[in-house]
Write a structure and sequence with these properties.
The complex is a heterodimer.
Chain A (H helix, E strand, L loop, with lengths): L1 E5 H14 L11 E7 L2 E7 L3 E8 L1 E4 L1 E6 H10 L5 E7 L4 E6 L2 E8 L14 E6 H9 L16 E9 L2 E9 L3 E8 L10 E4 H8 L8 E6 L3 E5 L3 E6 L18 E5 L1 H12 L8 E7 L2 E8 L3 E8 L1 E2 L4 E6 H8 L7 E5 L6 E5 L2 E8 L5
Antiparallel strand pairs in A: 1-5, 1-7, 2-3, 2-6, 3-4, 4-17, 6-9, 7-8, 8-9, 10-15, 11-12, 11-14, 12-13, 13-26, 15-16, 16-17, 18-22, 18-24, 19-20, 19-23, 20-21, 24-25, 25-26
Chain B lengths: L2 E3 L5 E2 L13 E3 L8 E6 L2 H9 L8 E4 L6 E4 L1 H5 L8 H7 L4 E3 L3 H16 L5 E5 L2 E5 L4 H4 L3 H16 L3 E6 L2 H8 L7 E3 L5 H5 L12 H9 L5 H5 L3 H8 L1 H10 L15 E12 L2 H21 L2 E12 L4 E12 L2 H15 L5 E13 L14 H18 L12
Parallel strand pairs in B: 5-7, 10-11
Antiparallel strand pairs in B: 1-2, 1-3, 4-9, 4-10, 5-6, 8-9, 12-15, 13-14, 13-15
């Protein structure tokens, strides 16, 4: 194999591959990236056995072929090469080495046989549809903060992507929760997605997927089966196993009868929460919200470190209410609001609170209060 | 070499006798003016108090004890010459020393003497960590400017005051950490003053037996013997990871302590680190129902103790010992600190299910750690488990009933398994 490729193109392709590779690997081949050159394309493939990413890039292929080298080392080398350099990769099959040349730099990397590289079995997808990058980005960006890291409830370690009944008919919906907060984000159902089985997309896949979604208008080809999900752009294909488990019935969790409504500028609110939370002890970070006629007082009382209070003008006309929250949870949901005011719907100090942006029902957040 | 007269507190450089008062009670050490962590241990404390309060006993062998358990609590140095030791059954002690005077302990007198000593120590430093009525660690780091004398002088003055004002003697161990200070106080007993400096730490430890380490009891000693570890130098030959693999967290401790390294601070209130409970079965069992019953009872005991101490914890640990003595431990962090038996049990149960069936087991244990005040517990609800709050309230109600009508007034069915 021998090929030449522009450094910037190579860096982009390799960096996606190396981020999939697990840092601590017991199986040496899994630390490697599979390089396949043919025609005028080079393809980089990496996997952690749960996720596989294939990245294609144009290259001048002098001699077709394939080999595997350490993904991290190759990435580090390319990263340190000067901008605009032309990089030549040469695989001398017999010696088991890959030469990386650019200008006056010359590297010699150990390779492993390509036959040992595990390629994810292809499978039948029961639904194939196309969605704009912008749409998918919103669905996952706004839900991923609520993904649980708790291993005992492994079925919460991802975003539940499924078809649901929304306000105006069927929607493509993403839900994530860790039992303390929940995010439910809807998008219009793309054509062909109706038959899609609900899948739990693992946290790491959500992170990798994000890198495919930078360009708003890009069409992303999505394929879903009971066990796998695939996202593809013309250059990159990301295939992932989904979490084998049942996502809990989240619909019961979303409060329906919360009537006490508070409307507040999300940015002002977040800044005030952040300020008063400064004095709270690091672990609990409890912030008390005291609501009265068009007035919100945020306060923290931490016996060990001090107290803080801040008053905010809000729209609120229900009876007095005192309710506590973990400051981090408040900041996280408030930061999801970017166009209109944040609308909070409370019931009592012990019941889950709902938050949404204006009257937009396509992005709903639920957060559990905290005893203060 | 810097030297100090323990009688008149004169500091001098050379000579085996004090140039001022000609006393031979001199302590000399290269690092005498640098070391600042000390362990003070009273000499035969209870017996000394009795002799002080009753001069007739002064030259007689005195044994304190004979309470309910009939063992020696303290023996004076005269009795010790005859072979009497603490914790020895009384009949055996009297066999060895038939003319001994046995005195019933008068705790209030000892507590009072201890308080007086404590007050004297507090004049030296706020960093005092009492281990019992008659011994304490003191950290005098950075007090030299305040007192105008290095720690060694202040410590010598402390024991001199104890002797002059309270009629009690103590021994000082001075070193650069707690582990070595405690060892040192035992080297020159009674009424001693021993120093272990940084320079000779390793040389000093080399041939000492490992049982010198606090926490190495009979069981650990036996395990160490099997590994061919008898002295500190035996430990030096071990790789840190190997020690950890073989002895767990104790292995890490051994690795550091054998090198004279101990970073524990001298703190007055050693906060409680965990609450745990375990039980060894009469016969090994793999029966999941039986184990589940034990798990619940352990969770309840741990919860009761946490509640009694107004504590809650964020980490639940499950410990299982298999019939072949292999230990399995699993831990789970909680988002919200708890003291509820219900949460401890459910978390323990999840961990138990994760372990799978590796029985039969001979022991099961449950622990709660990463402790905090109960005020910080049970503050967050779980969206996906709306009944949790209800179960929590039921448990509080159960506790209230038990507090009023006794522990058996109301029990869970599963605790009967």
């Amino acid at each position: 194999m021998k090929l030449s490729i522009e450094r910037g193109t190579l860096l982009k392709a390799v960096s996606q591959a190396q981020s999939v590779v697990e840092r601590r690997n017991t199986i040496p081949i899994l630390a490697n990236v599979l390089i396949e050159a043919e025609g005028n394309t080079v393809q980089f493939r990496a996997t952690d056995l749960d996720i596989e990413v294939v990245d294609r890039a144009p290259a001048m292929v002098e001699r077709a072929g394939s080999t595997t080298v350490s993904a991290v080392t190759l990435h580090e080398i390319v990263r340190k090469l000067p901008d605009g350099a032309l990089v030549t990769l040469t695989d001398d099959g017999a010696a088991g080495r890959l030469t990386v040349e650019a200008g006056r730099s010359n590297f010699n990397l150990a390779t492993l046989p390509k036959e040992d590289f595990p390629v994810m079995a292809s499978s039948e997808y029961s639904a194939n549809f196309s969605a704009k990058a912008e749409v998918l980005r919103r669905l996952f960006d706004k839900s991923k903060f609520a993904i649980s890291t708790e291993e005992t409830r492994y079925y919460l370690n991802g975003v539940y992507m499924h078809v649901a009944d929304g306000d105006g008919g069927q929607v493509l919906r993403c839900v994530a929760t860790d039992g303390h907060r929940l995010a439910r984000i809807d998008a219009p159902l793309p054509e062909g997605a109706g038959a899609m089985p609900g899948v739990i997309v693992p946290r790491k896949t959500v992170g990798e997927l994000r890198k495919l979604l930078e360009e708003d208008d890009m069409d992303i080809a999505v394929s879903v089966s009971e066990t796998k999900v695939r996202f593809a752009t013309p250059d990159i294909t990301l295939t992932s196993k989904v979490i084998d488990g049942t996502f809990p019935d989240y619909t019961r969790v979303i409060p329906q009868g919360n009537t006490r409504r508070m409307e507040v500028d999300a940015t002002d609110f977040a800044k005030a929460v952040d300020r008063v939370a400064t004095v709270s002890s690091e672990r609990s970070r409890a912030v008390k919200m005291s609501l009265d006629e068009d007035r919100l007082i945020l306060s923290v009382n931490a016996p060990d470190s001090g107290a803080a209070e801040e008053e905010l003008a809000v729209a609120y006309s229900d009876e007095r209410l005192e309710i506590g929250f973990n400051a981090k949870y408040l900041l996280e949901i408030a930061s999801q609001v970017d166009r209109e005011n944040a609308v909070f719907l409370f019931n009592s100090a012990g019941d889950p609170t709902l938050m949404r942006e204006g009257n937009d029902e396509t992005a709903v957040y639920v957060v559990m209060p905290m005893r203060v | 070499m810097p030297a100090l007269c323990r009688d008149c507190l004169t500091e001098f450089e050379t000579g085996r006798r004090c140039p001022a008062c000609r006393s031979a009670r001199v302590v000399a050490h290269d690092e005498l003016r640098q070391l600042s962590i000390a362990h003070m241990d009273c000499d035969a404390f209870y017996a000394s108090v009795e002799k002080r309060d009753n001069p007739e006993l002064a030259d007689k062998p005195v044994i304190i004890g004979g309470g309910r358990r009939g063992v020696v609590s303290t023996a004076c140095y005269i009795a010790r010459i005859q072979g009497v030791r603490s914790a020895m059954p009384m009949f055996k002690a009297l066999d060895l020393c038939p003319n001994a005077v046995v005195v019933k302990p008068r705790m209030e007198a000892y507590v009072e003497a201890s308080r007086a000593i404590r007050a004297m120590m507090e004049e030296l430093t706020p960093a005092i960590q009492p281990l019992s009525l008659d011994e304490a660690f003191l950290d005098l780091t950075g007090t030299e400017k305040l007192h105008g004398h290095p720690p060694a002088v202040m410590l010598a003055r402390l024991v001199r005051r104890m002797r002059d004002e309270l009629g009690l003697t103590g021994s000082i161990g001075l070193s650069h950490n707690k582990f070595l200070a405690k060892i040192a106080s035992d080297l020159d007993k009674p009424h001693g003053f021993a120093v272990i400096g940084r320079a000779e730490t390793l040389e000093f430890l080399r041939d000492q037996p490992v049982r010198m380490i606090w926490g190495v009891g009979a069981a650990t000693q036996e395990a160490l013997d099997r590994a061919g570890i008898h002295t500190f130098s035996d430990l030096w030959r071990w790789d840190r990871q190997d020690l950890h693999l073989r002895f767990g967290s104790m292995g890490d401790r051994l690795w550091h302590l054998s090198r004279g390294e101990d970073t524990r601070r001298v703190t007055a209130h050693e906060p409680m680190k965990s609450v745990s409970n375990e039980t060894t079965f009469h016969e090994d069992t793999g029966d999941p129902d039986l184990l589940d019953g034990h798990l619940w009872r352990m969770a309840e005991k741990v919860s009761d103790r946490a509640k009694a101490k107004q504590l809650a914890g964020r980490v639940v640990t499950l410990k299982l010992k298999r019939a072949d003595f292999r230990l399995i431990t699993r831990r789970q962090s909680l988002r919200d600190a708890t003291q509820l038996a219900d949460v401890i049990y459910r978390t323990g149960r999840q961990l138990f299910d994760q372990v799978g069936n590796q029985g039969p087991y001979r022991l099961i244990g449950v622990g709660l750690s990463d402790l905090c005040s109960e005020a910080e517990a049970e503050r967050l609800g779980d969206l996906l488990d709306p009944d949790a709050a209800k179960r929590g309230r039921a448990e509080r109600a159960t506790d209230a009933i038990r507090a009023r009508f006794g522990p058996d007034a109301i029990v869970k069915g599963r605790s009967l398994r």
